[in-house]
Write a structure and sequence with these properties.
Elements (H helix, E strand, L loop, with lengths): L1 H14 L2 H9 L6 H11 L6 E6 L5 H25 L7 H11 L17 E7 L9 E5 L5 H11 L4 E6 L9 H22 E12 L4 H11 E7 L10 E9 L4
Parallel strand pairs: 1-2, 1-4, 2-3, 4-5
Antiparallel strand pairs: 5-7, 6-7
Helix pairs in contact: 3-4, 7-8
């Protein structure tokens, strides 16, 4: 009976969740897109020309957001270039405002699954679970913990360094604090190891974590590897959840 009450309460909260409604409106596969969106807007993570790797990508909302963001940035850069090539650059404040208004897209986001004509960047997504295709996103299905899967991912990179690693990976939790802490730390360790090997010197890693036993050790590992380390708790994370995100920027010892 208690389980049924919990299920009904969760379903009620989910249906009435504003981020769920926003995801449905904007075409994102999950509300998690707005967690990345908020962190990106705060920390300016995504820039034109980036190579981005999305770990634990399914169902794909983070890849959708990253692809959407690269598409918007590419379009804005193209608009600026066209204006400059045609010598149509505004010189007074009023004209500059009008030019900026004309350059703004009618919608705050491109359709997340529509192909981009000129995406300035690359996105590679990986997950154990299958994921429906996303335009402009290369997908690899496999377990990131397996060496052969990691080799396939490295082959897809083709020797290119990565500018941004985003990881929404989370292990299956048992409810046993010590066991869960070890699993969470292991997932973070995998992302840290991959980032150390493949990030550019100024690259960044964003991982999901959970407050609790082992959290401080993960923070220390980030501080050992990155010059800038910052925890992030976006508003889209549910208040009752211990979920948080750790951002590391600028490798101390680039590989």
């Amino acid at each position: 009976m208690a389980k049924n009450r919990f299920s009904h309460a969760w379903l009620h909260d989910h249906i009435n969740d504003p981020y769920v409604k926003m995801a449905q409106r904007d075409g994102y596969r999950a509300r998690a897109a707005y967690k990345l969106k908020e962190i990106d807007e705060q920390d300016k993570l995504i820039r034109p020309g980036m190579v981005i790797v999305d770990l634990g990508a399914a169902p794909g909302s983070w890849s959708q957001y990253a692809r959407n963001r690269l598409g918007m940035l590419s379009r804005k850069k193209s608009d600026v270039g066209t204006q400059q090539d045609g010598h149509a650059v505004a010189t007074d404040a009023a004209s500059m405002r009008k030019t900026a208004e004309r350059a703004q897209p009618a919608s705050p986001a491109l359709s997340p699954d529509q192909p981009s004509t000129a995406l300035n960047g690359r996105i590679i997504a990986l997950d154990m679970l299958p994921m429906a295709p996303i335009a402009d996103v290369a997908f690899l299905q496999g377990d990131f913990r397996e060496d052969d899967v990691l080799e396939k991912l490295e082959k897809m990179l083709g020797g290119c360094k990565v500018d941004l690693v985003i990881s929404d990976m989370a292990p299956n939790l048992s409810g046993v604090a010590l066991a869960d802490a070890a699993r969470i730390e292991h997932v973070c360790d995998l992302a840290l190891e991959f980032s150390q090997r493949h990030l550019t010197p100024d690259g960044a890693l964003l991982v999901k974590c959970f407050h609790g036993s082992g959290y401080s050790q993960i923070i220390e590992k980030f501080k050992h590897q990155f010059r800038v380390v910052a925890p992030r708790k976006p508003k889209a994370s549910r208040d009752k959840s211990s979920e948080t995100f750790i951002l590391g920027k600028k490798l101390k010892h680039p590989g």
